[in-house]
Specification:
By secondary structure, the chain is mostly helical. The protein has 4 domains: about 90 residues; about 100 residues, no CATH class; about 180 residues, no CATH class; about 110 residues. The protein is built from 23 helices and no strands. The chain is flat, with a radius of gyration of 63 Å.
């Protein structure tokens, strides 16, 4: 139905009200009021009648209002249609609002359902995770607790050496330990498997015990290489671990049986080996009559050797030092093979062979004990001593027997250094088990070594120089000292020892004193110097050859040799050129005191000395050459001394030439002639 239309009067009234409302609105705004004021002012300016103007304006407004009403009436259908459309839209919007409110309510309900589902999902996920965790643990628990048919058959039926038995034994050991652990937690399921596990354990222990004892008994067979059954035992070292964990009395029985067996084997082997080695030693050993200062009864000479067979080895090391170097880890001596070749050895070679065999066996045994019996530290050492103690005591007593009557200082010293090297070798192999044994051997040897060393020092101190022949060559006691000192110093280089250095210093002091006493038996100073130089040179030569150049002993004797050589040169130059030497010393003393002018007063003496020198210097050189080379058996030493003497002569010539007056100086033989002659005495040594 179309909307009803209002009357024109009502419409005009409404328009009037609207104008008033508009006027009020414009008054409030202030802008329209200002405009009307301007219109009024314009009207006043033109002089127009305001009533007339007002009626005109109202007429115009009336016309506009009527026109507006006509327009409104003309558009009434459209306005009615617009009203209907607006009402229809309002209804549609109302339904949409209702629908949206319903959707909002539904969405709220869905959101709460989603939150509920999310909480349920989280809860179910946690439950699943917990159940999976429990499943893994429970499955592992059941696997650890259950005794399978394969386990039972493997322990009961499989041979001990079979891989299946070892695999099932490992599983059994794990289950036994697991059941023990769960028993403390009062797990009731342990009661279901405890009996069967106990029976399987007893069966496994019985089979393992029989097998291990059988392997140990194989050691007892004659001519058995015990390393083979040892290696076989190491393949089954878990067997002993199983016994130790589950039946300690049985494990102790196996351990005791092994200790008893190996103790007897080692004792028997080393007792036999040591006895057979002793038969290979040189028959003639050093005695108390083989000390350094003991006089030789036979004819003596520079290269004389004692009548006692192998006595040279008492003071000379020779190739004996090879036991510390090239032969240190050489194969041990095989007695029956050596006897076939009629081989004989010094004691230190036999000692090396015995101790190297001991070291090799002891290291292998200690490492076997730590691996198979699972011991370390003090328990390992205790177990090792139970096996090797008897053998070590036997070898210590054998060494003690030898040491009591030993006078071979070099042999004792070589044995000491063998001990030091083998002890270091043990440490490299991580085997401390022999440390006490090595220390005990040193405690046996050191006192005897020092005692015999002191005997040698005392023997030199007790020497009577008058009982020896007056020979200016190197004395045999000095040669003994040189060889002996070089041997001790050479051996000590790797392991210096303060006690040995003190002994060497005491011996050196005694030998120096002995050389001085021997030199004193010669009446002439030149003979004394020749004796001293020959002995110092021989000692220094041996020390330089066998030891480092910077050893204390070499430095000391080099100093002594240089001092005596300088004195000897002065001694042999004096008979031929003594006048010139004396004049040079006196003249230089006068120059130092500022009395150089007084030298002119001695011009006559200068001319006399020049005349004597010019006539005799060539013959003097020949005599010097013959005298020096005949006095020293060592041609190198003799040649060096001759060159030293000629050099000293040239220095005296220059000093003498410098002191001469201008008148006397031209009469002295030209130095170039002298140097040409001196070149004839230069040797190639």
């Amino acid at each position: 139905m179309a909307p009803s239309l209002s009357s024109p009067e009502s419409t005009v009234s409404k328009n009037t009200d609207r104008r008033h409302e508009t006027s009020e609105f414009l008054d409030e705004d202030g802008q329209l009021q200002n405009l009307e004021d301007e219109v009024v002012q314009e009207v006043l300016k033109t002089g127009t009648d305001l009533r007339q103007y007002s009626r005109q304006i109202e007429k115009e407004l009336k016309q506009v209002e009527n026109k507006s009403i006509q327009d409104y009436i003309k558009e009434s259908e459209n306005i009615a249609s617009l009203h209907n459309q607006i009402s229809s839209c309002d209804n549609i919007l109302e339904r949409m609002e209702s629908m949206l409110l319903s959707f909002q309510s539904d969405l709220g309900s869905i959101s709460s359902e989603i939150l509920s589902l999310q909480r349920k999902s989280v809860s179910m996920s946690q439950q699943l995770s917990n159940r999976q965790g429990i499943r893994v643990q429970l499955s592992q628990f059941i696997d650890d607790m259950a005794v399978s048919e394969a386990l039972i058959m493997g322990i009961l039926e499989s041979p001990v050496t079979d891989k299946e038995f070892q695999t099932q034994l490992t599983s059994l050991n794990h289950k036994i330990n697991f059941v023990k652990e769960q028993s403390f937690k009062d797990a009731r399921c342990c009661l279901d498997v405890k009996d069967i596990l106990e029976k399987l354990k007893i069966k496994a222990v019985t089979k393992i015990r029989a097998h291990l004892l059988e392997q140990i008994y194989k050691f007892r067979k004659p001519m058995t290489n015990y390393q083979v059954p040892q290696n076989a035992l190491l393949k089954f070292k878990f067997f002993f671990e199983f016994l130790l964990s589950n039946e300690r009395s049985c494990a102790q029985e196996v351990c005791n049986e092994y200790v008893d067996t190996m103790s007897k084997i080692y004792y028997s082997y080393f007792k036999s080996y040591s006895s057979r080695l002793s038969k290979l030693q040189f028959e003639e050993a050093a005695t108390k009559d083989d000390l350094m200062g003991i006089e030789e009864t036979g004819p003596r000479g520079l290269f004389y050797k004692a009548s006692l067979k192998h006595k040279s080895t008492v003071f000379t090391i020779g190739s004996r030092g090879d036991v510390l170097t090239t032969h240190l880890e050489s194969p041990i001596i095989v007695p029956h093979a050596a006897q076939k070749n009629d081989g004989r050895y010094p004691y230190e070679a036999l000692f090396r062979s015995e101790k190297y065999a001991l070291l090799d066996n002891a290291c292998r045994e200690y490492l076997f004990l730590t691996e198979f019996f699972m011991v370390c530290g003090a328990p390992a050492l205790d177990l090792f001593n139970q096996i090797m103690g008897k053998t070590l005591n036997l070898l210590s007593k054998n060494l003690e027997t030898f040491v009591q009557d030993c006078y071979d200082t070099i042999a004792l010293f070589l044995c000491l250094h063998l001990i030091l090297r083998y002890q270091m070798m043990c440490h490299k192999r991580a085997v401390p088990a022999l440390d006490h044994y090595w220390d005990s051997l040193q405690s046996l040897i050191w006192p005897r070594f020092e005692y015999v060393f002191r005997l040698n020092i005392q023997s030199i101190k007790d020497c009577d120089p008058t009982k020896f022949s007056k020979e200016m060559g190197p004395h045999y006691i000095t040669r003994r000292y040189a060889e002996f000192s070089a041997a001790i110093v050479g051996i000590s280089e790797s392991f210096p020892n303060e006690q040995v250095n003190r002994l060497l210093a005491d011996l050196q002091e005694e030998v120096e004193y002995f050389i001085y006493k021997m030199a004193a038996i010669f009446p002439q100073r030149k003979e004394q110097l020749i004796f001293l130089i020959n002995n110092y040179d021989m000692i220094l030569g041996v020390l330089m050859e066998r030891t480092r150049d910077n050893s204390k002993e070499a430095d000391k004797f080099r100093e002594c040799l240089n001092a005596r050589s300088a004195e000897y040169v002065e001694e042999i130059l004096s008979p031929h050129f003594g006048g010139i030497i004396q004049f040079v010393k006196e003249g230089e003393a006068m120059v130092e005191k500022g009395k150089a002018d007084e030298l002119k007063k001695h011009e006559k003496k200068m001319l006399s000395l020049i005349q004597s020198f010019n006539g005799n210097w060539k013959n003097a050189l020949d005599e010097l050459n013959h005298e020096v080379l005949s006095s020293f058996p060592n041609l190198v030493t003799g040649s060096s001394l001759l060159q030293l003497a000629l050099t000293q002569l040239v220095q005296y010539y220059h000093r003498f030439h410098k002191l001469l007056t201008p008148t006397a100086r031209p009469q002295l033989t030209n130095i170039h002639h002298i140097m040409v002659e001196l070149k004839k005495y230069k040797t190639n040594f």
